[in-house]
Design brief:
The complex is a heterodimer of chains A (110) and B (117). Chain A is an all-beta fold and 110 residues long. Chain A is built from no helices and 9 strands. Helices cover 0% and strands 47% of the residues of chain A. In chain A, the strands form 2 sheets. Chain A has a 5-stranded mixed sheet with strand order 1-9-8-3-4, with no helix packed on it. In chain A, strands 2-7-6-5 form a 4-stranded antiparallel sheet, with no helix packed on it. With 117 residues, chain B is mostly beta strands. Classes of the chains: A mainly beta (110), B mainly beta (117).
Chain lengths: 110, 117
Amino acid sequence: LAKTTQPISMDSYEGQEVNITCSHNNIATNDYITWYQQFPSQGPRFIIQGYKTKVTNEVASLFIPADRKSSTLSLPRVSLSDTAVYYCLVGDQAGTALIFGKGTTLSVSS
Amino acid sequence: NAGVMQNPRHLVRRRGQEARLRCSPMKGHSHVYWYRQLPEEGLKFMVYLQKENIIDESGMPKERFSAEFPKEGPSILRIQQVVRGDSAAYFCASSPVGPDRPRYEQYFGPGTRLTVT
């Protein structure tokens, strides 16, 4: 599985857009890029997944450049409730273990 | 559709006792995964099971830990002779039938917080 690197922490204020970048230089051709969110004392929650270009859902957008060696999770207009740890994972299919790194701790202030 | 259910949510055991953690996957999911999260650390994979089969237990300690997913009933993670270092949050996740699905997506339960005194 490709190793991922993301910032340990980020701070933001309510209403701002937050972009969290993840590096995955050794991503394989079949790998998808997936982001999970974990609130304190809860299990991780799937946010978004993409293979290339841009993916958008009701929660976030995921931008993936052509070389796929990095990706950016974009959270529009964050609120206090977006304070959580965000994990970037890279893998190729279901039925395999998820390998979590330390993630990015996002703190949103008022 | 109920999500992944885990019980108990909190479990306190004295050193040397056994801990049994239960996980009921989402309806229609036959793949179950167990993860452990130590305080201030990320989640670590422990074991991956399908009904009646252990597929990958590479993350499970060789001693004292075992897991099963019987044909009927929930998946069970069993920790024998618990020690203080076993204190952690244990999360179960499930996914739909794969591995032909192209998605790297699992649904997590709320976790069981084990405290060993």
